[in-house]
Amino acid sequence: MGDDHKSFISNFEAELVVLSPGRINLIGEHTDYNNGFVLPTAIDKRIVFSFSKNKTSSQCNVYSMTYDKVLIFDLEAIKPSANEWENYILGVIHELLQITDMVKGFDCIIESELPIGAGISSSAALECGLAYGLNQLFDLEISKIKLAELSQRAEHTYVGTKCGIMDQFASIMSEDQKVILLDCMSQEYRLIDANFDPYKILLLNTNVSHNLASSEYNTRREECEKVVEMISSEYSKVKSLRDITKNVLNEFKDRLSPKLFGRAVYVIEENERVLRASEFLESGSLNQFGELMYQSHRGLQHQYEVSCPELDFLVDFSEKNDQIIGSRMMGGGFGGCTINLIHKDHIDNYLVNVKKAYKKRFKIDLTSFITVPSKGTSIS
Asked: Which residue, 22, 17, 24, is CA-closest to 45?
């Protein structure tokens, strides 16, 4: 297609438009790949996919407005690319072709409202939106859960990030004004009313994206697996950190390095926090819910060691303000956003102060947005 992608766009007529949202996670970070509990939901910012069949058997053209680039590929010759953003797309295609031969040539235009590297899972929104759209376009009749699972596999095989199921699950399965209490071991889930009034969900984007995030993410996963391997040698039923109690972990304290012990303590405590947080949300005990968010951040900062100075500064700053009842880093870590529960009457004033303080400390502009729990991937 080369340089004439502008004519491709101007001549494009969409047969199908799909909206695929980013997600937030209120609490339960790095627990999903440890078969634990999480409390995510989709948000009202999303990626828009416009699809049409192009009457070829296997030629595909995907234009990203974010990158102003066209990815051209043949369904009969799918292989990983040197460009990371392309692998999210190619990985989904690869996984779809493992289970169906009904996908044919198509054109797609992708337009994103999601900031990349903010920890709101633009990657899962990209994967899930593409999978969902092709499922609709070609009448593949794949269930929503299966779409989430194949999107997760795409990230494992083509991108190389061994993520848990949370991001894809939240992107596809969320419902308006609800959060999902998800058991990542069984994939059983419960929808909980997301009633935070008089508080709003404020995301503060550090605008730092540390390159450590994906490599350290996989390292944390390996560290957790080492703990499981040691303990399962004596407790055969232990398959993940989810199966380990604090009492059992303490039996191995002298045999584990302080670092590995800290990783495991964090995950076990975070699972407990998620379950307690879901109860507090249902009972309207928002102050207690917010306190668990702070505890979650300190665990991520000190035990799991995936925070960074910019995130810690924002959480520390929020603790001095009575109008914020909870704050923590969100996402893989080393940058991205903090998620804050702030009284709706004090947002503007707080933003003036925190942006000024952040700029003074780091010489970086802080960006922000208010978001609300929203429905998952859907047809426009």
From this structure: 22
Q: Any idea what the Cα angle at residue 301 is, between residues 253 and 115, rounded to 5°? A: 135
Strand ranges inside 135-229, DSSP E: 178-183, 189-193, 199-209
Structure-token match 């695929």, residue found = 20
Q: What is the dihedral of CA 270, 276, 280, 286, to 10 degrees?
A: -30
Q: 327, 314 in Cβ contact below 8 A?
A: yes
Three-class secondary structure of residue 303 per DSSP: helix
Cα separation of 331 and 191, whole Å? 21
Q: Are strands 189-193 and 335-343 parallel, antiparallel or unpaired?
A: unpaired
Contacts of 207 (CB under 8 A, 6+ apart): 364, 365, 366, 367
Between CA 181 and CA 39 the distance in angstroms is 5
Q: Terminal CA-to-CA distance of the chain, rounded, Å? A: 28
Q: Write down the pLDDT at residue 45.
A: 93
Successive 10-residue mean pLDDT values, the chain, 380 residues: 65 95 96 96 96 96 91 96 92 97 97 80 92 98 97 93 89 97 96 97 90 78 97 96 97 97 98 98 98 98 96 98 97 92 98 98 96 96
Active site residues: 167
**Cα–Cα distance for residue pair 299/262, rounded to 1 Å:** 9
In whole angstroms, give the CA distance from residue 135 to residue 211: 33
The CA R_g of the chain, rounded to the nearest whole Å, is: 21
What sign for the dihedral angle of Cα 295, 191, 167, 205? Answer: negative
DSSP code at position 243? G
**E strands along 131-188, which residues?**
178-183
Residue 220 corresponds to which tokens in the numbers above? 């944390």
Cα within 13 Å of Cα(74), Cβ side: 2
Question: What is the distance, to the nearest Å, from the Cα of residue 241 to the centroid of all Cα atoms in its chain?
Answer: 21
The label of the residue with tokens 């292989």 reads 79
The token duo for 107 is 């054109």
* Token duo for residue 359: 């700029």
pLDDT in the model for residue 60 = 97
State which amino acid sits at residue 279: E
